Structure formats: C-alpha cells, structure tokens
Amino acid sequence: MTSTDTATARSVQIQFDDNTLLPALFGHHDEHLLQIERLLDITLRYRGNYLEIQGPEPSREVADRAIEYLYGRLKGGQEVAQGDVQAAVRMALSGNLADSRIAIRTRKRTITPRSPIQARYLEALGQADLTFGLGPAGTGKTYLAVAMAVSDLIQGKVDRLILSRPAVEAGERLGFLPGDLQEKIDPYLRPLYDALYDMLPGDHVVKRLNGGEIEVAPLAFMRGRTLSRAFIILDEAQNTSAMQMKMFLTRLGEGSRMAVTGDMSQVDLPSGTRSGLADALDVLGNVEGVRIVRFGEGDVVRHGMVTKIVTAYNARDKSLGVAKENQ
Fold first, then answer.
1. For the chain, does the N or the C end have fewer beta carbons within 10 angstroms?
2. Three-class secondary structure assignment of the chain
3. Residue 11 and residue 47: Cα distance in Å, rounded?
4. What is the pTM of this model?
C-alpha cells in the first residue's frame, strides 16, 4: 500500500497491493468508506486498486492513517467491522493509532482497543495488581477485563478466573425470586457469561465452569476466601457498600490480579448509603500498584446511539445539578 499526496487537487491517492482485500476494506455497499466520509467530512473515490481521498489536509491525513491501519488488519488476517472503522478514525484523530496494535487474543477473537483510554486500560490490566475501570455504559470496561482475564488463563498466567457482581443491589436480597439459588442469581450474572461466551467456544466455557477454572458468582460468595493465582473481576462495583468493597479487595491472594469496574452515575444503593466504589477510590487513590482509568462519553464503543443517549443523560444531570445549586 502506497500513498501519494496531490496538494493542488487537495487529495491523497492510495494504491493497494492486494485487490482481494478491498471488498472487506470498503465494506458491504461501501459502508466503511461512507462511514469514514461522514466522520471526517471528506470524499473517497476508488477505481481499481486506487483510492482517492479528497478534503482538507488534516482530515486527509487522518483518513490515510486510519485506512492504512484497517488494511493492515486485513493483511494480518483480522476482520474489519463498522466498529473497527469508527475506532480507527477515533485513534487516528487522537494521534494514538499505534495503540490500536495492542492485541488480546482469545480462542474466538482478537480484541484491540477502540479508543486511547481503552489502550491505557488494557495496559493497566496487564501490569497493575489492582485496576479500577470507571465510566458510562458501552465503554468496554467489563468486556476488556474479561478479555484480559481469559487471555491470561489460556496462556497459563493464572489458574482460574473469578467473575463477580452484586446481585440485584448491595443487600443482595434474592429470597423473593423463584427457583433455587443458581436460578435466582443467574440473571444478574448474565452479562459476565455473555462476555465469556464471546471469548471462548461454548463447550470450553462449560468445561472450565464445571472444572472450577472459571467461577461466576455473586459478591456474597467471596466472603472468607483467599483467591491465589487468579484473575478476579468485580463488575457493577458502584452497588457495593464500603464494607463489601473492603471484603472483596482483601480476597486478593498471591499471584493474582484484580479488576473493579463501575459507573458512579448508576448507583442503586438505598438513599444515604455511600458507594463502596467511591469509598475505595478515596482510600486507595495514591496506593502503589493501584491504577485508576476513567472513561468518558467519548469512549462509548457500542452502537452510535448509545453515545448520544449517554451524552443526553449527562447533559440533563448536569443541568439538574446546576438547578439544585441555584435553589
């Protein structure tokens, strides 16, 4: 792949050396090219194995870098979906496109960061003893933590995965639900199962669950345990009490790492109860070996509408906060 800048025509011309990859690069009905055009306000035209980028110089350069990265993914045997296109443009705009080459490999897929903050988060998950991932829905906090955990398990860096979250609320009052204990708690742990099945074939998940290599359990099941050579994840941590959070964090054993994820804008605790996540951040913010990574609405990597929803709610909450201050 080569790029030629034609300044007088305000364009960049890219030549590809493998035409067979272009349908996947351009997308069905050119949907990937159209997405890049919308995101960068440029025009893309192709003929044969040439692609011309027309538009302002900064946008041309961003598009050139993003397309080069996506083409490289295809040459490396990876797929390119719409989310990958958006991620490539986001990373190219930030100047951190090289971070997209960070790769977490699992049995079913290779996961790469889709924003600079995701890249920083993956780095923290791979290095720190305790990592806090904070931010709104759709930013990949839990998904990336599970990906790192599964990768470590496959590589033999840990012996087991422990995935946990508060069931229903901090009090974990499950008695009113029908069924046995497993049937009561499964609906609240389903997001963790979903992430696992996205990383591993179904029979592998079942085998590892039955063999104890993977455990998915409500927070209450962690009490009194010491978890050694494990990758431990606590999801929805904003719905823990301070006592529960301290209990969970002190389960960390020899050779283990821990990830704690949560969204402080979605606390379901009873009024007047302080979130254990907020308490832990105050207590552990300056402790060596602890990394805190904060995501924003600009890091949402789900459907584009999710970004708009998060932005709208944040704007509403901010205006209500201002209104309360003025009362």
1. C
2. CEEEEEHHHCEEEEECCCHHHHHHHHCHHHHHHHHHHHHHCCEEEEECCEEEEECCHHHHHHHHHHHHHHHHHHHCCCCCCHHHHHHHHHHHHHCCHHHHHCCEECCCCEECCCCHHHHHHHHHHHHCCEEEEECCCCCCHHHHHHHHHHHHHHHCCCCEEEEEECCCCCCCCCCCCCCCHHHHHHHHHHHHHHHHHHHCCHHHHHHHHHHCCEEEEEHHHHCCCCECCEEEEECCHHHCEHHHHHHHHCCECCCCEEEEEECCCCCCCCCCCCEHHHHHHHHHCCCCCEEEEECCHHHCCCCHHHHHHHHHHHHHHHHHHHHHHHC
3. 15
4. 0.79
**Is the confidence at residue 323, as pLDDT, over 50?**
no
**153-162, 164-173, 231-240: least confident range:** 164-173
Token pair 């087991």 is found at: 160
Residue 16's pLDDT band (cuts 50, 70, 90): very high
Do 244 and 219 contact (CB within 8 A), yes or no? Answer: yes
C-alpha angle 54-56-61 in degrees, rounded to nearest 5: 80
pLDDT number for residue 169: 46
Q: Which two tokens stand for residue 68?
A: 């080069």
Which tokens hold the place of 202?
Answer: 């179904």
Q: Any idea which residue has 């050119």 for tokens?
A: 30
Structure confidence at residue 96 (pLDDT): 73
Tokens at 71, concatenated: 């083409």
Edge-first strand listing for the sheet containing 290-294: 214-218, 160-165, 230-234, 257-262, 130-134, 290-294
Which residues have a Cβ under 8 Å from the Cβ of 133 and sit 6 or more positions away?
121, 141, 142, 144, 145, 259, 260, 261, 262, 293, 295
Residue located via tokens 């070996």: 289
pLDDT for res 172: 47
Distance CA 171, CA 158 (A): 31
Extract the tokens encoding 81: 């979906």
- Report CA torsion sign: 65, 42, 297, 197: negative
